[in-house]
Request: fold
Amino acid sequence: MERILITGATGLLGSSLVPHLKKCGHKVVTHARTTQADFMFDLSDRVKSYEMLAQIMPSVIINLVSLTNVELCEEQVNLAYLANTSTVESLAYWIGYSGADCHLVQISTDHVYDGTGLHTEDSIALTNNYAFSKYAGELAAVRVPSTILRTNFVGRSQVSHRESLTDWVYNSLRSAKNLQVLSDVYFSPLSITTLSEMIELVVQRRPVGIYNLGSRNGMSKADFDFAFAECLNLETNTMTRIKTCQATFWKAYRPKDMRMDSSKFENVLGVTLPYLNDLIPQLAREYNENA
Ligand SMILES: NC(=O)c1ccc[n+]([C@@H]2O[C@H](COP(=O)([O-])OP(=O)(O)OC[C@H]3O[C@@H](n4cnc5c(N)ncnc54)[C@H](OP(=O)(O)O)[C@@H]3O)[C@@H](O)[C@H]2O)c1
Reply:
């Protein structure tokens, strides 16, 4: 059993990861900024961060704190730095100077890639402030014993204030709302459920280094959205395929191909990750069961 501190525990991933790790028998302490948790404060406050860490003395920290709003990161570089980089610097600094036997699991993103996938871990292409600030966070994490997981995920959100990609498709189609889906943006996400299982494995095994963690192959977001809708038997006549050059709802540049080669993770951890095609029926079942 590990004594795990999860920072940013009440967001999209944390709300599923916390119960999963507790179910696996770990002692989990939660941190959040604005929602109920064991510790509540802005993690860019270094003094409070060190006080919390000294009090908990975690054996593992899983850092989920992030400013994930790509547009806001582009407009407010300082905020992106504070949330995505400075917070990781504090956690890593504490691990270093306290001498604690503590492993950091830093959750990063497939957004650090662009160009034609499948990308291996060394093919970095930083194209916006979100990617830049997350990558800078990785550089802080590698200074201490850590696992950096570059990932993306889909699946049902357990919190009302955060909607996942699949929530957005599901909710929009069920209420016959128009939605535009991107035919020239490619990704290779895992389900939140599989990602939570893989993070638990990382907690047990503590592999040091940077790892891609996604599904095999991947596909365009539009193909994914249509396949997901088909599995749910949802009418798709309000869903339109568009290209990124037609997207008027974004200002910041978005990478077009974030598909990852996750074979390093598979080889080191001895697991076989699912194909994205095979994840879609499982995701649809999750939505049907909780409809
Ligand atoms: N969502 C995705 O599709 C996706 C894809 C790829 C990678 N990721 C990565 O996965 C991780 C988790 O993402 P997520 O979607 O679960 O994020 P999320 O729902 O936005 O949750 C992030 C949490 O961090 C907290 N936070 C932000 N700035 C903070 C600060 N300065 N101090 C304390 N707390 C702060 C937020 O608190 P408030 O609610 O109070 O703001 C929020 O609870 C992130 O590292 C993200 O980069 C996410």
